[in-house]
Amino acid sequence: MKTVNGIVDLQLEPQIPIEQIQIKFNRPAASRYGLTVGKLSEIIETALNGRVVSQVLDKQQTFDLAVWLKPDARQNLDTIRNLLVDTPNGQKIPLAQVATIENGTGPNTINRENVSRLIVVSANANGRDLRSIVNEIRDKVNQQVHPPSGYYIQYAGQFEAEERATQNILISSLIAFVAITVIMYLSVKSIPSTAMIMINLPLALVGGVFSVALTGGVISIASLVGFITLFGVATRNGLLLVDNYNTKFAEEMPLKEVLIKGSMERLNAILMTAFTSALGLAPLVVESGPGKEILQPLSIVVLGGLFTSTALTLMVLPALYAKFGKFLLPKRTTSVVEDGKVPKAVFE
């Protein structure tokens, strides 16, 4: 991890060796006597750590009655080695016959997570995004580190929280997309019109993707929130145009006039939304103070997406309507000329 660019404050969880009595069980010898490691552990725990076996009542107060070795015996290796162990067949054997007892050194603390032992290697990120640093660490570890059986490496901390948040946002985005589609259909009552409005969503993504690419190519949680915001703006613009087109088309207005008048009537509202949002986001894009790690990526995505979404919406949606507008509402036919009068457009 030291060779990874952007790693700072790298450290291993402090482990201070301390003197301790180490008891290592001889499993084959214990099995010959019909003893299990669990049974031996209970006996040793009772002798060295104590076990409450009853209670004593003294002057209206209850005290626990614990059984264990005397303090000086708990520090004596010979006493521990000669500790008698009851076997299933009624024999009593010294602990030394099924275990090795000796002085040694070990860690001062043993941490656990989900019952498994845990040791932490921690570091901070500086000058690079967290995801790229962890990906590089993961590649190097996979190539150079091969843990023995029973050991595994887990990448946690802020990176784990970011991955979990990314998954939640992607699921929420999918749900939001479905909800927006249903609401659009209930508004325009037409599947082709709904499809035309939803086509506008990829147009909003174009500017956001280019903005992210130009500013480093890092997609963070804030960037994903910015894309969701763009979805709402793009959908609103598409709904304004298509709904106005449908209204004018229903008034028997020629298609060319529908597109020109419908677009001009909604141009002010669309541009006003885009420019006011851009003015509000511009200071956040160039901001360098605290909080920029959240506000800046979001602002970059939304600001870039606003320009492309607004421009492409005003060009692509009218073109699509001119091509497929005849499928959005009932077709028009012309009545037979009667008494020299100009025929009027009627609906089938």
From TrEMBL:
The chain crosses the membrane at residues 169-188, 195-215, 267-286, 298-322. Signal peptide: none annotated. InterPro entries: AcrB_DN_DC_subdom, Acrflvin-R. Keywords: Membrane, Plasmid, Transmembrane, Transmembrane helix. Pfam families: ACR_tran (PF00873). This is Uncharacterized protein. It comes from Nostoc cf. commune SO-36.
